[in-house]
């Protein structure tokens, strides 16, 4: 990077706003400290006068209590000075230059280009991430602090060398220029206020110990707490102003760091890597979840990164994403295919701008690539496989029994994962049309005497246009729900954009009315697609003598779908009724609420009793689920002991409730899939018959 990247006008605007918010905090804080010092002095003077007026054990105790109350308030306002924010390193593995010389040389080259200092330490983690971090505190605003670099191997495994260069340059870009220092100040002020509002465990212990010394001490501790509640109410307002200013500045800092990265590596590497990281993270989480689900059987992998690469490329193929240099090319067209929302709410609480906004800014910069190194970033590491195995071992170290673990080979993972993925998907024939919607109920008249010509095959029904229509309807439903929440004041915004036009809150009602009309028209069109499908597949079923089988599958699925809301009702009511356990401590209130729980439990147990004998749920009732549900249904459990909740019976309750929910969800999916698979088999048989007779 030859020249210093200049900050934008927006950056300056947000920086000024952030500094003004800091000045507001300083003004409020100084006034509070002055008031606290004055109060401490008055209380101390009052205590001395009280003792001087009538010396006794009681007046001495009251005098000390008065003075202590003032001191407690003062400690509250000053405690942040001694507080340090220590980054948790338990999931990190430190590496040194002698272990990875190529990587350190690569980092050194980027550091020189960005004109910043080499990190104090370099750490590796298992996940899809990269960051520069440091332990911060009040004094870090004034004293130089050395930064540490954190590199996630899940990220390295899914980018090229040049993309990795851009990502690291972005991270170092946050600390490369003096103009970025303001972000550090605002961040630390934010931490100060947060400390006084929410990080009070040790302070509360001190106050409790002080109050526990004597009843007259506790009086003044209670009074001090009341005063501090007022102080916190003031600080919450200030925190909102400072936090909003910080987050606004933080978003501009991301754009600025992107420009730094583009000057080092060119615009293209960040533009290609940013959209892929979601897919890379999905693949990583999928593999980790796969082995966590097998932790009871002590099945692990020695190296999860070949699996991550396989899953990422597998998902890319499933979504028709091309590969370039062995990595998926994720485009804006792909991400927007499944997100048809036209509602844009500027999230003032977001610390990062939207990926599409960052890509647009990089595209506008249009800085050419300087070193087009498309080799996998993993080539920067020596002894790659051993390093990956060490990181994998650290990730799963607390989840398995080392003496009993079975290491699963890659080919076995591929076989099992692929089968499970297929089991959880609907046939490709439907082109994602039914992924988030159910089919309409059977229209027997249209099936018996179709008004239009029967489709030649399923591809003529489940077109890309039909699939887009299904996702558009889903987005409309969600947009309408969000707009209704906005109308109720559930979001602190004044305006929003919809389909490129800016709206004010008072315009929500007519907009929702229009959107509901559009949604109803879409639903009618989707129902037409359902009926075309039904006419087509019942014509195939009639040709193959399978009409009754298809009708039974429809009836079972539609019946279960129609019952689902009522079946879920006792589960949701029970979870809501049990929520008091998280906060309620008064015995009388607890007993009253447990009586209400009993009434809801009775309905849930009736539903469970029916579930255990209803063949609709047979396939989802594993032995574990059946035994848990049967035990819960047959026993009258007691949830409260003499002085505490009965953890064992509560565990039984929550396990049964969870299994009940799982059975409902899985049964709905299984019957839906059974219907769709049967129809796909009818299509396959028809194609085979046509081929044989051709």
Mean pLDDT: 85
Low-confidence stretches: none
- Give the overall shape, derived from the CA principal axes: globular
Largest sheet: 4 strands, mixed
- What share of residues is helical? 55-70%
Structural class: mainly alpha
EC number: 3.4.24.-
Domain Peptidase M48: 98-364
GO biological process, one term: proteolysis
Pfam family, one: Peptidase_M48
Report on this model:
Keywords: Cell membrane, Hydrolase, Membrane, Metal-binding, Metalloprotease, Protease, Transmembrane, Transmembrane helix, Zinc. The protein is mainly α and 694 residues long. It has 21 helices and 13 strands. It has helices spanning 9-53, 57-78, 101-114, 153-156, 161-173, 181-198, 201-211, 215-265, 267-292, 305-318, 332-337, 355-365, 384-396, 410-423, 444-448, 464-487, 508-544, 547-578, 587-613, 623-634, 647-693; strands at residues 84-85, 93-95, 122-125, 130-133, 136-137, 148-152, 299-300, 323-324, 327-328, 343-344, 406-407, 495-498, 501-504.
Key terms for this structure?
mainly alpha, cell membrane, 4-stranded mixed β-sheet, M48 family metalloprotease, globular, 64% helix, transmembrane helix, 13 strands, 694 residues, zinc, 3-stranded antiparallel β-sheet
């Amino acid at each position: 990077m030859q020249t210093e990247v200049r900050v934008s006008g927006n950056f300056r605007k947000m920086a000024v706003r952030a500094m003004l918010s800091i000045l507001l905090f300083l003004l409020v804080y100084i006034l509070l400290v002055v008031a606290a010092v004055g109060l401490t002095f008055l209380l101390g003077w009052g205590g001395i006068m009280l003792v001087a007026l009538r010396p006794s054990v009681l007046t001495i105790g009251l005098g000390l209590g008065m003075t202590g109350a003032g001191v407690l308030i003062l400690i509250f306002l000053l405690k942040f000075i001694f507080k340090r924010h220590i980054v948790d390193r338990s999931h990190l593995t430190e590496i040194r230059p002698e272990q990875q010389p190529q990587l350190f040389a690569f980092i050194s080259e980027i550091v020189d280009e960005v004109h910043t200092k080499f990190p104090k330490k370099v750490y590796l983690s298992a996940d899809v991430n990269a960051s520069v971090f440091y332990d911060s505190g009040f004094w870090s605003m004034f004293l130089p602090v050395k930064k540490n670099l954190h590199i996630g191997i899940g990220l390295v495994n899914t980018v090229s060398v040049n993309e990795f260069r851009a990502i690291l340059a972005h991270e170092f870009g946050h600390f490369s220029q003096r103009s970025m220092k303001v972000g550090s100040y605002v961040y630390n002020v934010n931490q100060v206020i947060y400390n006084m509002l929410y990080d009070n465990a040790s302070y509360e212990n001190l106050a409790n110990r002080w109050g526990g010394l004597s009843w007259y001490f506790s009086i003044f501790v209670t009074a001090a707490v009341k005063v501090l509640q007022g102080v916190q109410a003031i600080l919450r307002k200030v925190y909102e102003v400072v936090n909003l200013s910080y987050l606004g500045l933080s978003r501009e800092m991301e754009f600025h760091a992107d420009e730094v990265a583009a000057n080092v590596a060119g615009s293209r590497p960040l533009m290609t890597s940013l959209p892929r990281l979601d897919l890379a993270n999905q693949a990583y989480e999928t593999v980790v979840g796969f082995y966590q689900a097998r932790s009871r059987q002590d099945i692990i992998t020695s190296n999860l990164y070949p699996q991550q690469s396989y899953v990422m490329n597998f998902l890319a193929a499933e979504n028709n994403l091309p590969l370039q240099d062995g990595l998926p090319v994720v485009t804006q067209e792909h991400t927007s295919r499944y997100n048809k929302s036209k509602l844009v709410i500027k999230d003032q609480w977001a610390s990062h701008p939207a990926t599409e906004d960052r890509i647009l800014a990089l595209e506008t910069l249009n800085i050419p690539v300087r070193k087009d190194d498309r080799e996998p970033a993993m080539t920067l590491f020596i002894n790659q496989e051993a390093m990956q195995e060490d990181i994998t071992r650290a990730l799963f170290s607390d989840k398995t029994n080392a003496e009993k673990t079975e290491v699963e080979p890659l080919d076995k993972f591929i076989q099992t994962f692929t089968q499970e993925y297929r089991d959880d998907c609907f046939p490709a024939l439907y082109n994602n049309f039914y992924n988030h919607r159910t089919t309409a109920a059977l229209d027997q008249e249209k099936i018996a005497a179709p008004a239009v010509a029967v489709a030649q095959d399923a591809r003529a029904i489940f077109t890309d246009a039909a699939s887009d229509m299904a996702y558009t309807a889903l987005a409309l439903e969600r947009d309408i729900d969000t707009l209704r929440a906005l109308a109720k004041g559930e979001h602190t915004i004044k305006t929003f954009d919809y389909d490129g036009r800016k709206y004010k809150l008072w315009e929500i009602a007519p907009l929702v009315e229009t959107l509901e009309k559009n949604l109803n028209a879409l639903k009618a069109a989707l129902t037409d697609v359902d009926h075309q499908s039904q006419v087509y597949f019942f014509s195939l079923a009639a040709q193959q003598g399978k009409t009754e089988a298809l009708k039974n599958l429809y009836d079972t699925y539609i019946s279960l779908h129609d019952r689902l809301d009522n079946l879920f009702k006792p589960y949701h009511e029970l979870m809501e009724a049990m929520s008091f356990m998280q906060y309620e401590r008064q015995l009388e209130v607890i007993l009253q609420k447990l009586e209400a729980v009993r009434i809801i439990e009775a309905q849930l147990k009736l539903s469970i009793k029916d579930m255990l004998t209803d063949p609709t749920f047979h396939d989802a009732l594993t032995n574990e689920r059946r035994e848990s549900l049967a035990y819960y249904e047959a026993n009258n459990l007691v949830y409260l002991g003499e002085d505490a909740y009965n953890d064992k019976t509560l565990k039984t309750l929550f396990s049964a409730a969870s299994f009940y929910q799982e059975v409902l969800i899985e049964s709905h999916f299984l019957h839906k899939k059974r219907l769709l698979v049967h129809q796909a088999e009818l299509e396959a048989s028809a194609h085979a018959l046509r081929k044989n007779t051709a």
